[in-house]
Amino acid sequence: MTTYLDAQKALRGTAAVGGMLLGLLAAQVNAATTTVQAESFNNMLGIQTQATTDTGGGLNVGYTDAGDWISYPTLNLPCAGTYTVQYRVASAVTGSVLVLEKSGGGATYDTLPVPNTGGWQNWVTITRDITLPGGAQGLGIVVPAGGWNLNWFSLTDKCAASSSSRSSVAAGTNLRLQAEDYDEFFDTTAGNSGAAYRNDAVDIQALAAGGGFNVGWIVANEWLKFTDVVIPTSGQYTIRARVASPNTGAQFAVDLNSGATFLTNMVIPNTGDWQNFQTIQANVTIQAGTYDLGMFMAVGGFNLDWIEIVSGTNTSTPSSSSATSTSSSAPASQWKTAAQAATDMGAGFNLGNMFEGEQNASTFANAKPKIDAYYAKGFRNVRIPVTWTETINGSRLANQLTGVVDRNHPRLAQLQQTVDYALSLPGMHVVINAHHEYGLKDNNRAAVLERLWQDVVDIFGNRNTRLMFQLLNEPHLSDGSAMPVANIRAMSGRAYQKIRAVNPQRIVMIGGNQWFGSYELGNVWYDLSPVGNGNDPYIMASHHHYEPFTFSGQDGNHAMAWTTATIADPLTRVKNWADSVGKGMPVYVSEWGVGWAKNKPTMTCNNIRLWYQQMHSLEARSRNYPTAVWDDGGWFTIFSHATNSFNNNLVDCITGQCAWDGNTRINAGCY
């Protein structure tokens, strides 16, 4: 069957413009940066250009809508390997997405959630590493979710750099990295405000004394990266940084490999002046290896001269300052607030009943094929439901009356292996929860949930910042009735405090008091006093979208002629709460789907396909809400554990495009 998408990809693979075939002009990318002006395409669909007010003037591409695309003339890439790509983008909306791909759609090289920059001509440069093939390559850009402008993008090959490391910290030596010699960066403003040393968006100025330069005009959420730093021996090291600030409270986080390993937070003292530099330091443990060293600016308002790594720990007073940074025991840096994580999580899936029930084996071997299959489809979050205090296959992970976790339980080892594997996949976010804890809820055992999360955060607290904790899933009682509001508020508050005592920046998810329906957040969280009082940027709300269950349930009427409002209204209700009481809190639709498989041997209902097409790609994404489809391998099957492959094409519907059986929405497969 040839779909509309197939025809569109075939067209993107040609260079037909105005009825004429264009000869493809090949440009060479060599060990330098090649910039491609957005408007220099040789073919497109739905794209318009306009004059830009960005530095350098000219035109930008804009007025992007879902389904638009652009093709560019062929580039000759010097090698297959890592390239640094920079996008110059602007947007006045949230939820827009840009995809860099092989012209014609043969391969996807990068999926970029474009942030709301505050205006259609308020430009920022976003820097990312991607993998590209070598030789003559046609590149294209696709618009899965519109609402962004693009001025240019650039490619810099790192092939030569990948064969040799920039620097090493040998025993008894130090490696000093001048701030202005970064390899990659993210800066929130265009142009170099200091007009010194380099000509990109990082703000650099000459030092007032001693020669050299410093990075300045630093604001929150900017970052610098130094690639290929070699740590030859596992052990203790000292991180030092030369900083200046007339402010109090500025700080940055230091980590490795884009947040994969957190090292320390460094708090900058008030040094009295922008050019009165002092050295701060922190002792850290680093395993041997080659890393990208990152600096994330959590609170701006300081200047940075250099950062260095010193072999061995140092307890002496830092030069020119008695202020030493405090090294947090919590491994989660401030790389992502909940809002930033929501943008990156995108479409996701539930692992299903592996660790919360007995339907599927609770093993990593059972989980891995499903994780791999969804990841290959571009899904970037997985929710792993876990039942701790109830009996699964004859045993409990945690004591039902105390909440103490059995750390030697073989199921816990399988869970840890599954979590760690998912986190090892670049960009994959992982959510674990307390899923079916009936005795805990029926008997209001707040102390049990508190101790449970105390143990969980101790066991998993050193994991990547992309691991998130959902406090208590669907807190209905065993008879299906709602948990009293006062109980869930108090219970959630106690668990939240235990997590925050260890992980101040780990993302924590709260929810309703029954089925996580759209009305529940407003009923339960009339204020946020038990969970940070609205001042914690690392909290996310949870919502489950099965409304109406008369359609989406396993015994639902799947021939129901639902409308767009049927999907949109519950999300709008949740958003109204999130934007008011929630103070802009992002929302994670952590379950949704249609229970088709109880009464149907195969999934051929176009009405269900349309629901999956609209739910994530149109409705949730337009609100910047990440989602996780419920896929239990049973009534809500998408992935089959029997074959370790997708049972149907609903996985493609979620991202917006999938083939139908015929052209009728409510077809025979819906009955």
TrEMBL record:
Ranges annotated as spanning the membrane: none
Biased composition (Low complexity): 315-333
Signal peptide: 1-31
Limits of the CBM6 domain: 34-156, 175-310
Keywords recorded for this protein, A-Z: Carbohydrate metabolism, Cellulose degradation, Glycosidase, Hydrolase, Polysaccharide degradation, Signal
Positions of the UniProt region annotated as Disordered: 315-337
Highest taxon in the source lineage: Bacteria
Pfam family, one: CBM_6
Keyword Ribosomal protein: no
InterPro entries cross-referenced by the UniProt entry: CBM6 (IPR005084), Cellulose-bd_IV (IPR006584), Galactose-bd-like_sf (IPR008979), GH (IPR017853), Glyco_hydro_5 (IPR001547), Glyco_hydro_5_CS (IPR018087), Glycosyl_hydrolase_5 (IPR050386)
Family, as annotated: Belongs to the glycosyl hydrolase 5 (cellulase A) family.
Protein name in the entry: CBM6 domain-containing protein
Upper taxonomic lineage: Bacteria, Pseudomonadati, Pseudomonadota, Gammaproteobacteria, Cellvibrionales
